[in-house]
Structure formats: structure tokens, C-alpha cells
Amino acid sequence: MERPPNLAAAIDTAAEALVGVLDSATARHNVVSPTQLRVLSLVIAHPHTNVNRLAELLDVVPSSASRLCDRLEAVGLLRRVADPRDRREVRLVPTTAAETLLGELRDRRHQAVQAVLDRMPNRVQHELLLALVAFSQAAALGAPAAGSDSTVRTA
Predict the structure, then answer these.
(1) 25-30 long-range Cβ contacts below 8 angstroms, 24+ apart
(2) Angle between the N-to-C axes of helices 62-74 and 34-45, in degrees from 0 to 180, rounded to the nearest 10
(3) 32-59, pLDDT tens digit by residue?
């Protein structure tokens, strides 16, 4: 297969298509906003996170992170609990409902992607997998250090 004249543009277009597929699977879920889903994902991925650490991960001020947590706590998806090692420290803990919600969302997203993959020949699916693994590895090699100001993050 010949390399497209602008490979980066072709990949960008494909990424937009993938985002569209993932967004369509997420859109049917109106309980929380995409930003709130990101907060829940970060809290699950970073156990023992407090509001200040969450604010760093989101690249927002702590008061904004706290308001996001307030909303998630109000709908029963997040709890603030005292750290058993230091009662002055408050940790963010996802509820079982949050874990269930994210699991269901992940399943819907996987089904949506699988529906697209099913329309592709098996050989092309395998080639795509190999290319995505290689891309992920190359991206990880060039990833800036955590906390670097060179990354742009949104909340």
C-alpha cells in the first residue's frame, strides 16, 4: 500500500472518525458530562487521589476540581473520605455506581468500535492492530514527563 501524500492528515481524519464512533456510544448516556466522566476515569486510574492532585491531572484550579467533585458526589458517583493514615487528608473514591457506569460505557464503546471493525476485512483489522500498537509505542517514547507544561490538557 502506498503512503498517502499527507499521512498525518489521513491519520487525523481517521482519528476524527474514531472519536465520532466513541462519542456516539457515549452520547446515549446523559447522567454525567464528558468532563465528569474524565474525572471518574482519573480517580479510578489514580487511587488515593485528592482534589489537589485531581486539579493537577485536569490542569485546572483546585476550586474547579472541587466543584466537579461536588456534582459527582451529589449524583452518588463519588465520595470524599478521610485518609486512614492522615485524617486531615481527604481522598476521592468512586462509588460502585461509578465503576458500573464506566464499565457499561466502556462496553458500549467497544461494541461501537467492533461494529465498525466488522465491516473491515480480517487482514486489514490485523494490520490496523499492529499499526496502532506501533503508534502507541512511538507516542510513549516521545511523551513528555508528567507535570510538564508542554502538554495541553482540557477539563
Answers:
(1) 25/105, 25/108, 25/109, 25/111, 25/112, 26/105, 26/108, 26/109, 28/108, 29/101, 29/104, 29/105, 29/108
(2) 100
(3) 888 999 999 999 999 989 999 999 999 9
How distant, in Å, are the alpha carbons of 87, 92, 115 from that of 99?
25, 13, 24
Q: Would you state the pLDDT for residue 152? A: 43
Using 50, 70 and 90 to split pLDDT, how confident is the model at 106?
very high
Confidence of residue 126 (pLDDT cuts 50, 70, 90): very high
Reply yes or no on whether the pLDDT at 155 is more than 70. Answer: no
User: CB of 115 within 8 A of CB of 17?
Assistant: no
148/63 Cα distance (integer angstroms):
21
Tell me the domains of the chain and their CATH numbers: 14-140 (1.10.10.10)
**Is the Cβ–Cβ distance between 27 and 21 less than 8 Å?**
no
